[in-house]
Amino acid sequence: MMKKIIALAMCAGMLFSSCSDFLDRYPKGRWHSENMPETDLDMSILAQAKLMEAYSGLRAWGFIWPALAMHNYTTPDSYKGSSPADGGADLMAFETMSFNPSNGVITDYYSNAFSVISKVNEALNMINQIDDSDPKKQELDCQAKFWRACMYYRLTQAFGDVPYINRYMLPTEKAPARSNVDEVRAKYIAELEAIIPMLPTRKEIVASGNYMVPTQNAARALIAKTYMYQKNWTMAKAYTQQIIESGDNDLSTPFNEIFDEEQEFGPESVLEIYCELRPSEKIYMSSQYGQIIGFRGVPNLGWGFNVPAESLRNAFEEGDPRYAATVIEPGDDLDGRPAQPSDVDYQNRKGYAKKAEFERYGRSEGDQAQWRNIRLIRYADILLMHAECCCELGDAENIKEALDKLEMVRNRARGGNASVLPKVTTTDKTELMEAIRHERRIELALEFEQYFDLVRWGIAKDRIDNFVVGRHELFPIPQSEIDKSEGVLTQNPGYNG
């Protein structure tokens, strides 16, 4: 399977990079005998290569660098890190909520998401040309529609109304006007619902080694998260319940091992992006994600971005073992070496690559964890979503269910130490909701949830300095995109002045 992935990656590179001469000559996204003889390569291989090209955008700089800023540096729990000016004015603007429509980081996030969608649509154009008798057609169709839905989930989360494009567009065509956020969500939810039965389980992709294929529970998770933004607690709970009952995920991974390479696509994994770097095997499918958040100092394992702020460090309950698994303090043991941080004292333990990882496959410390997968949705997140839905529904049976799922997360976090993290027993809805929110803050610290959690809970104005109600619930549509559209795209509220 690994050889097949490498071959497809080479195919993607040849067909869509180095061979631009024939792509310019013939219609892009269409196979015919003039540009690729059928005896050499069939359409399913072309479609897979294009999907791999789209998938590469999920681990690319244009997605990771902006996502860390937009999802984390905007919160009081995380800040940029590194040296004070590192990253430039556009990046520093997120800590002060002073970003504007010309911010290059936001532009990269927006354009990269639509680039992935464009490549997916191009792949779907190819997939439609595959003979219906080919079993690969349905598999590729499902994968493509999942990744398009994933991008639209991210876009609607960040920008609200966005253009909805579900067909291959010629380079000369302009993007359409923005569609209503609920209409966009309804479209991608319908597609996700339709493909769930055809997607594999996590256990099946682990058995096959085809890690770039999305799972049934990943699709259910995107649907559930979307319904939570719409405050449709009944439907969100129904999908988290399906994930729980599937048996495809569990909390058996100790918290302090979740982000280790050995646990990639493990029981905790609901949605993660596959990255790999094995120089000894000539496998280069790396991402700078691990490098960006890796430890900065001695040992020199990264750039030291996305680090825990004092407010987050102080929020951990006394004795919570997750503190040491989230925060690196000066002098902490890092595989036998005392941590000697540069620029910032407290750094991100979730971004630390253990010595054993860079001593295999021909890697070195200088590679700075560019093999590290990007965990987007974890099972603990699902359990806490389920608890939140139950609490919002509020009747006695649901409150009991919420307490049960909250306790599952806290029990794993204790790591067998019964003297810490006392069991939450309150049946008061307000108190229980605060407990669930606290648990999400701590369990998912420095990941990709806190900013948008605060926004959807309606408490961002109370937690984030300089947060402006009616403005910062959404990020600005990039001015460059508005200009290119010749005014067809409009700006979000609060960013026109």
Fold topology:
Blueprint: H1 2-18, H2 20-25, H3 43-56, H4 61-73, E1 78-81, H5 88-92, H6 104-127, H7 136-159, H8 181-195, H9 202-208, H10 216-229, H11 233-246, E2 269-273, E3 276-278, E4 283-285, H12 289-293, E5 297-298, E6 305-308, H13 310-315, E7 327-328, E8 333-334, E9 337-338, E10 340-341, E11 347-348, E12 374-378, H14 379-393, H15 396-414, H16 429-443, H17 450-457, H18 460-463, H19 479-484
Antiparallel strand pairs: 1-6, 2-12, 3-4, 5-10, 7-11, 8-9
Question: What's a concise summary of this model?
Answer:
The protein has 497 residues and is mainly alpha-helical.
What does it look like?
46% of the residues lie in helices and 7% in strands. With 497 residues, it is mainly alpha-helical. A hairpin with a 2-residue loop joins strand 8 and strand 9.
Please describe the structure with a list of short key phrases separated by commas or semicolons:
single chain, 497 residues, mainly alpha, two-stranded antiparallel ribbon, two-stranded antiparallel sheet, 46% helix, globular
